[in-house]
Amino acid sequence: MKAGIFKPLKERSFRSLFGAQVFSDLGNWLDFLAIQVIVAYQWGLDETAIAAVIVVIGLPWVIVGPFASVFVDRLPKKHVMITCLILRIVFVAGLFFAPNLYILLLFVFLKGTVAAIYDPARQSAIRHTVSEEQLPEAVTLSQLSMNTMKIVGPALGGGIIAFFGARSPFIVEMVGFMIAILFLLKLPVLHETEEHNDKESAKKQKYWGELLGGFRHISKTPLLKISVILSAIAFFIIFLYDGLFIFVAQKLGFSEGDFGVLISAVGLGSVVGSLLMGNWTQWKRKPIHFMATAAVFSGFLIILMGMGSMNVIELPPVGWMLGAFFLGLLGSGESVPYGFILQSETPKEMMGRVSAVATSLQTFSMLIAPTAGALLAKWLGVSAVLAGAGSATCLLGIIILLFIVKRMNMQKAATEKQVQA
Fold first, then answer.
1. 157-195, pLDDT tens digit by residue?
2. InterPro entries, alphabetically (predicted)?
3. How many CA atoms lie less than 13 Å away from 76 in the CB half-sphere?
4. Could you state, in order of their start, the residue ranges of all structural domains in the chain?
5. Quick one: residue 50, left, alpha or beta (phi over 0 = left, psi -120 to 50 = alpha)?
6. Rounded distance, CA 295 to CA 200, Å?
7. Tens of pLDDT along 57-95?
8. DSSP secondary structure of 189-242
9. What sign results for the dihedral spanned by CA atoms 296, 54, 109, 92?
10. Which of 19, 187, 204, 349 fits a disulfide with 183 by CB distance 3.0 to 4.6 angstroms?
């Protein structure tokens, strides 16, 4: 089998960056489970406390990430990432010793803040470690790490909690961040000097001008603008029903124990999708087409699940697990091209700002969607929300495809007019 998706790992720089990401991603999912166990089981708090944790996890990406990203673009990426990892170790230690919810939320927020700074630096570093030709594979590997750790992290965290106690994953997480630092210490100095040579010019550049530059770049780059809007709306739709999925699973006949298997099927589909996307990169020619088509098919699957929870369609559990697998597979068909567009349509020197702005828009959608989903579920019912979310996903993909076709026809007509003239 050809190297395919793993080609960028031949580059020493990217290999170090990717190794650090794997352990960083693992840590993120280890403590997500541990925090919920502490809040719900050890302290006996209700759903409001869990909701507060989830909101505080996402908040730094909205209110800190975009503003800090200007400094991320100015500073050496290697040093930024190492500093962030050191601070994350400190803040995870704070989570380990947190005596109550308020102290826990403080350290959750602080850890989320450095994560919101680390990620734009990592996104920017990708562009400095691989060639443009290897960018699709590098982006796919990055997505593969995130998708894989979504499965491995909670499973490993659950095992560690069972054997060593609720707070033990924090220790493993700190060790993981230390290993990530070791990988980054081996990262060669990135060639960023051309971006920072004119220091006097950089000093004269106003902070707000640079910050708004990230927003302006997205608004003035058609392909990037469409992908960011499509991704943000898709995230909103997904998180409308994400918190309700456990109730859908009950209606589909899944027991409490089997629910984890259903979620794992989605995760496995994401991993397989990332592997396929990395080994077949023809999608990079028309990434928006691919994202929109994936949205149409995934929306169709969500509608089927909604109809199943209404007892309109009946399938054995294995059939729904297969549907969940393909839902994860199609999810990679949206997330991987989005990551590629974000990287390929953004200048290296603006990568931090642009990625932080795009992530903040997505995270904002993720924060407001669960509340809207819960209200709609009380009004219309869980099954109706799921079917509606699937219909909205299909419609979104169709609208984007129609927009693309209309634009292509306009360009064709303009070309023909020029030829005739």
1. 878 888 888 899 999 999 999 999 999 999 887 665 444
2. MFS, MFS_dom, MFS_trans_sf
3. 12
4. 1-221, 222-345+381-421
5. alpha
6. 47
7. 888 988 888 888 788 888 888 999 999 999 999 999 999
8. PPS-HHHHS-HHHHHHS-HHHHHHHHHHHHHH-HHHHHHHHHHHHHHHHHHHHH
9. negative
10. 19
